[in-house]
Design brief:
- This protein is of the alpha/beta class.
- The chain has one domain (3-236): Carbamate kinase (3-Layer(aba) Sandwich), CATH 3.40.1160.10.
- The chain is 39% helix and 19% strand.
- It is built from eight helices and ten strands.
- The strands form two sheets. Strands 3-4-2-1-7-9-10-8 form an eight-stranded mixed sheet, sandwiched between helices.
- Helix 3 runs antiparallel to helix 4.
- The protein is globular, with a radius of gyration of 16 Å.
Length: 238
């Protein structure tokens, strides 16, 4: 069965610096993927790329018919995606990008890519809808892929070890719907941050999927999470 990995923009970029990659995060993800080697679909966030322009032009998860900035948001996300795919290729990891607007009809393509040993990659983006243009986050795409593929496991890789009871407090080894959680906002983020991420994680877990939070900056822990082994991080229970 397939695993879906969401790598947050906080791992791949410095979220407080416009369009600035985090080389340590890129290397960590590459090492984990190289060690994993089983069928996997990768989704990445926007970090200081797409989020910066979305915030600049006032875009969020609510649709808008205002098109100013749509092109710059998309161009920024495409730049980040191209950089990620290129860096992974240098490590011998071959990927194939699927743009978010294609995902609803992409199941056969994804399964073909997985059979051929490629890693399908998608990303948060600005997309047209009946109500206008809206930001579809990487977390939204993970939910859509979970419905489409019925993965064995979903792993959310962040720039911290997992979910904490409160800011600077205890790391929660397991989290349920009633858990006390600390939220913070850092850098550019127009898609709801951890609070929305947890809401989506609970919806996925209710499908019977194993859902985990782990640091994407620690390749060894990320690899354990991908394999379903005990790791430093947080498990979602519903």
């Amino acid at each position: 069965m397939v695993v879906v990995l969401k790598v947050g923009g906080s791992v791949l970029t410095f979220k407080d610096r416009r369009e600035r990659l985090n080389p340590k995060g890129l290397r960590s993800v590459a090492r984990a993927l190289k060690g994993y080697g089983s069928p996997l679909v990768l989704v990445h966030g926007g970090g200081s790329f797409g989020h910066y322009y979305a915030e600049l032009y006032g875009f969020g998860v609510r649709p808008s018919f205002e098109v100013s900035g749509v092109g710059r948001i998309r161009a920024s996300m495409l730049r980040l995606n191209a950089m990620l795919v290129e860096e992974l290729a240098k490590s011998g990891i071959e990927c194939y990008t699927i743009q978010p607007v294609m995902l609803g009809r992409a199941k056969r393509l994804i399964l073909r890519l997985l059979r051929d040993g490629l890693i399908p990659v998608s990303f948060g983006d600005v997309v047209p809808s009946r109500a206008g243009y809206k930001i579809v986050s990487g977390d939204d795409i993970v939910l859509k892929l979970s419905k489409l593929l019925g993965p064995e496991r979903v792993v959310f890789a962040m720039n911290v070890n997992g979910v904490y009871r409160r800011l600077g407090g205890e790391l929660l080894k397991e989290i349920g719907l009633g858990s006390e959680v600390g939220f913070s906002k850092g850098g550019f983020d127009v898609t709801g941050g951890l609070k929305r991420k947890l809401s989506i994680a609970f919806r996925i877990a209710k499908m019977g999927v194993d859902v985990r939070f782990v640091s994407g900056l620690k390749s060894g822990e990320l690899l354990k999470a991908l394999k379903g082994e005990e790791h430093l991080g947080t498990l979602v229970r519903v």
